[in-house]
Design goal:
The protein is of the alpha+beta class. It has a single domain, classed as Nuclear Transport Factor 2, Chain: A, CATH 3.10.450. The chain contains seven helices and four strands; from the N terminus they run ααααββααββα. The protein has a four-stranded antiparallel β-sheet with strand order 1-2-3-4. The longest helix is centred in the first third of the chain and has 23 residues.
Length: 186
């Protein structure tokens, strides 16, 4: 009896492991892992974030830190739902609905405010001070609570090892994840 129970437990364990590994090899799971890297502020995401922020030559060090904080908030508060997945052999399309802060709106509203209140961003000599405006713009981005929802179609391909790889995202899709997509141009 113990031998039969052992064999059954081993079989159940093997089936459970096989089920888990199959689930981990789906395109859907790969997209979830990708989006979770943003939400969890993985080392890869933070490294890329630092590269982008550090390359901003027009920002002061203090402004770079504010911008870094804005992006960290954006990523960690990203919400998503997988709404569809289709497979065709070694290719797949996974559709995810994401919700992010509407940083595009914050930037657009800041620019509109600048147009109507340019004098507020002048230095003591009456000349326009772009650093003052950048401080204002970053503050608006930090304080934004409005969100926007997008659907992104992730195209994936199986590699030689049978693992799903996300194909390169379009610039528009990256801007959607970052919340800066210009939806007014649609």
């Amino acid at each position: 009896m113990k031998k039969i129970l052992k064999v059954m437990l081993v079989m159940v364990f093997a089936i459970t492991l096989a089920g888990c590994s199959c689930m981990q090899k789906t395109a859907k799971t790969r997209v979830e892992e990708f989006l979770d890297q943003y939400r969890n502020l993985s080392a890869n995401v933070l490294g890329d974030l630092d590269e982008v922020v550090d390359s901003e030559t027009t920002l002061s060090e203090e402004q770079k830190e504010k911008y870094r904080d804005v992006l960290k908030k954006q990523y960690s508060d990203l919400k998503y739902e997988i709404v569809d997945e289709t497979y065709d052999g070694d290719t797949a399309v996974v559709e995810a609905k994401i919700t992010v802060y509407d940083l595009y709106k914050a930037q657009k509203d800041a620019s509109t405010y600048l147009e109507n209140n340019r004098d507020e961003f002048n230095d003591e000599n009456g000349s326009y001070d772009s650093a003052k405006f950048m401080d204002y713009r970053l503050e608006q981005m930090q304080d934004i609570t409005d969100t926007v929802e997008y659907t992104i179609s992730f195209n994936l391909t199986k590699d030689d090892s049978g693992n799903w790889q996300i194909n390169e995202l379009s610039q528009d899709d990256l801007e959607k994840i970052h919340g800066i997509y210009n939806y007014d141009s649609e």
